[in-house]
Amino acid sequence: MPNVSPETARLTFRALEAIHGMIYFSPHGRERYAEIGLTERGMIYFAPRSAAMGPVPADVSVATFFNFNPVAVRSALPEAWRIATPADVLEARYEAVDRSLRQAWGEEVDGSAVREAADLARRAAERACERPQGRPLFAGHAQLPWPTAPHMVLWHAQTLLREFRGDGHVALLLTEGLDGLEALITHSATGVISAEVLRVSRYWSEQEWAAGIERLRSRGWLLEGPGLAFSEEGRWRRQSIEDRTDQLAVYPYEELGEQGCARLRELCLPLTRAVVQADLGFPAELVARHTNAR
After folding, report:
1. Is residue 96 part of a domain?
2. What domain count does the chain have?
3. What are the CA-CA distances from residue 126 to residues 9, 133, 196, 254, 288 (Å)?
């Protein structure tokens, strides 16, 4: 099997991430979930992402999602399962994805670029399915049937690659002794995304966020003073988590090799830009991040 570098794994994942991630912002998602009775903000995130695992109790999602406030998860689950079944939620999710990608890609939704990208991404995702051990959220999605339309195959493949990478990332965060809130704070300290976006989207209060900062300062991760500034040790430890996450994510992309991964990125970068520019609800800083991706 061809060697693939950890950097290639990261770059290839990032090139496709918005193709999956748009479903968390798309108005088509909110519309379809409302049609099956899910209208509360937490339910329309936690139920669709959990549904592949079945009607799991809240604490399974707390464990696998990791950085969301457990109080918010428990307010949505299992109540959502009394309103709609996981099968209903998954059907609504896939219909919302279909509508969203058709809006973004128009006549190109069935074009040669999407078809080729879907084939490449599926090959990588199917290799990931050979190693579900230790990756529970990935494993739940891996047992779902593959769609048939190429744009849906591409979305499902990136969903699998995302959760495969994410489960490995969670394991490394735990190894470093970080809880979910502390993981978010250290992520924000890298400068990749603002603290407020992470705090609000993961349901943490200002007081909880401030307490998490103080815990990290007391353990030497962050410097004293205004804002979020890593100590040398904190910067090294966070970067080590990112580097090892890339290493753990290499396995699926070895199916494609460096050349195949480069081709997948070439195909998907224009598709990603079309998604983030398609009025699907992406926050402004994420639009800029994906539009400028290389």
Report:
1. no
2. 1
3. 15, 14, 36, 11, 31
